[in-house]
């Protein structure tokens, strides 16, 4: 007797889409069958809905403790649940203290423990002076180490020089850990100011990304380190990544919903809610990112949810140089991507691979991001044809400002389950450590 059975005409599994029955007991999927299964409770998924595995978002800035007025675990994980995200990995910066040593990791975990609505893990930072802390953080279960090739935006999380990156890579390779990098070359970036979006875009040209990524790929090839390129914005880097993969470099790359949805041509001057770094680029670049996903050079899509207070976005002046760079999109990443993907002929199975299975595999969570026996019963019901307009009042993020405000999207998350428990507004997520099943 299962605790719960889902009956659905459309279920996305690693083998593709099918109909049938999904049995759940003890928070895990027990079996998938063509025939009805005995259960204490049965959930019948409507004909206009699909049963999907919970999304895994490996790039979220929760900002707590220290900058909880920007975002926090309670609000971020509530937004995640509303968007079908059942697992997120929190970035090590913007919180104070940043997650760069064991005491800071303990502080973050203690802060999150009783607030989270979905499962949460932690990245740690690779910063100047903490090489001796990397092994301890790794053994404590962080999912990898984040580094910057330029100023991070906050002074307490320093960036690494090329020599420091090489040293960090050697230590991280010895641990067989993962290094994730914000890759922009400061030498290719010029100061930005003023209201014109095109001026801001010109200040961070594609060469900033390609130069930094080329250097990182060279170092990863030399050290054997596992390297992951964060929030790829410039399609100019796709051939570099493809070539490195062919040579056997252990590299993966992600992009984000805002790079696949918006275009530089449509961003009005002064609309600083669209500011992020690296920037949203032109329409032709966007289509090349989609092609990079289609051919597998880009491995996944994650939110890079990076909110701040409304005041920090400087809507009063519209000055892109002064505004905080980051887009709040955790709750609406899936409908944004599904809207754009379906317009281009991609099936929902591709979207789930990019937003659930591949991110789970990146961070070593084999029971996440898939509907198969033995996996966590992290599931959600999605209405792929339902439409809605993004409005601030419907968002669970602490600060409601988002670049998606007013946008008409397709695809609605109607219900979410975490380890077989329907999420209805009460905390109950689990703090994850690397290697958990």
How is the main sheet built?
6 strands, parallel
Task: Give the uncertain stretches in residue-range form.
Answer: none
Could you tell me the mean pLDDT?
Answer: 97
Strand content: 15-25%
Helix content: 25-40%
The total of helices stands at 11
Ends apart, CA distance between termini: 23 Å
Q: Write down the overall geometry.
A: globular
What is shown here, in short?
By secondary structure, the protein is α/β, with parallel strands linked by helices. It is built from eleven helices and 17 strands. The chain is globular.
Please characterize this protein's 3D structure.
The protein has a 6-stranded parallel β-sheet. The protein has a 4-stranded mixed β-sheet with strand order 3-2-1-4. The chain has a 4-stranded antiparallel β-sheet with strand order 5-15-16-17, covered by helices on one side. The protein has helices at 73-82, 102-112, 134-139, 162-174, 197-203, 206-223, 238-246, 257-261, 283-294, 333-343, 348-362, and strands spanning 2-13, 16-25, 28-33, 39-44, 50-53, 55-60, 85-90, 119-122, 124-125, 145-148, 178-182, 226-229, 251-255, 300-301, 379-389, 408-418, 421-422. With 437 residues, the chain is of the alpha/beta class. Strand 16 (408-418) and strand 17 form a beta hairpin. The mean pLDDT is 97. Helix 4 crosses helix 6 (206-223).
What topology emerges from the helices and strands here?
Layout: E1 2-13, E2 16-25, E3 28-33, E4 39-44, E5 50-53, E6 55-60, H1 73-82, E7 85-90, H2 102-112, E8 119-122, E9 124-125, H3 134-139, E10 145-148, H4 162-174, E11 178-182, H5 197-203, H6 206-223, E12 226-229, H7 238-246, E13 251-255, H8 257-261, H9 283-294, E14 300-301, H10 333-343, H11 348-362, E15 379-389, E16 408-418, E17 421-422
Helix pairs in contact: 4-6
């Amino acid at each position: 007797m299962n605790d719960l059975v889902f009956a659905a005409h459309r279920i996305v599994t690693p083998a593709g889409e099918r109909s049938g029955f999904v049995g759940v007991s003890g928070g895990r999927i027990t079996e998938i069958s063509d025939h009805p299964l005995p259960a204490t409770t049965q959930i019948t998924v409507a004909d206009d809905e699909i049963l999907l595995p919970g999304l895994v978002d490996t790039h979220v800035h929760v900002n707590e403790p220290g900058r909880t007025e920007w975002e926090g675990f309670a609000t971020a994980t509530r937004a995640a649940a509303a968007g079908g995200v059942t697992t997120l990995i929190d970035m090590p910066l913007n919180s104070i203290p940043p997650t760069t040593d064991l005491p800071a990791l303990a502080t973050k975990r203690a802060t999150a423990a009783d607030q989270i609505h979905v499962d949460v893990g932690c990245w740690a930072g690779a910063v100047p002076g903490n090489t001796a802390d990397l092994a301890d953080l790794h053994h404590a279960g962080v999912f990898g180490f984040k580094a910057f090739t330029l100023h991070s935006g906050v002074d307490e999380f320093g960036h690494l020089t090329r020599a420091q990156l090489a040293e960090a890579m050697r230590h991280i390779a010895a641990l067989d850990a993962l290094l994730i990098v914000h890759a922009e070359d400061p030498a290719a970036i010029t100061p930005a100011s003023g209201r014109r979006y095109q001026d801001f875009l010109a200040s961070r040209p594609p060469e900033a990304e390609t130069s930094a990524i080329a250097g990182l790929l060279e170092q990863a090839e030399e050290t054997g380190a596992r390297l992951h390129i964060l929030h790829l914005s410039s399609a100019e880097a796709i051939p570099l990544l493809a070539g490195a993969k062919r040579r056997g470099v252990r590299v993966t790359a992600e992009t984000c919903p805002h790079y696949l949805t918006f275009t530089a041509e449509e961003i009005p001057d002064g609309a600083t809610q669209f500011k992020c770094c690296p920037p949203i680029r032109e329409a032709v670049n966007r289509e090349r990112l989609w092609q990079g996903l289609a051919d597998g050079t880009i491995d996944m899509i994650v939110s890079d949810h990076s909110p701040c207070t409304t005041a920090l976005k400087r809507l009063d002046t519209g000055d892109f140089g002064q505004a905080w760079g980051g887009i709040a999109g955790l709750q609406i990443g899936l409908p944004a991507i599904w809207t754009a993907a379906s317009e281009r002929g991609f099936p929902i199975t591709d979207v789930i691979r990019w937003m659930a299975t591949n991110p789970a595999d990146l961070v070593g969570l084999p029971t996440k991001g898939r509907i198969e026996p033995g996996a966590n019963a992290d599931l959600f019901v999605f209405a792929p044809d339902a439409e809605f307009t993004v409005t601030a009042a419907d968002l669970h993020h602490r600060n409601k400002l988002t670049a998606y405000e007013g946008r008409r999207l397709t695809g609605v998350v109607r219900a979410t389950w975490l380890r077989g428990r329907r999420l209805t507004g009460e905390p109950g997520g689990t703090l994850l450590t690397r290697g958990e099943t």
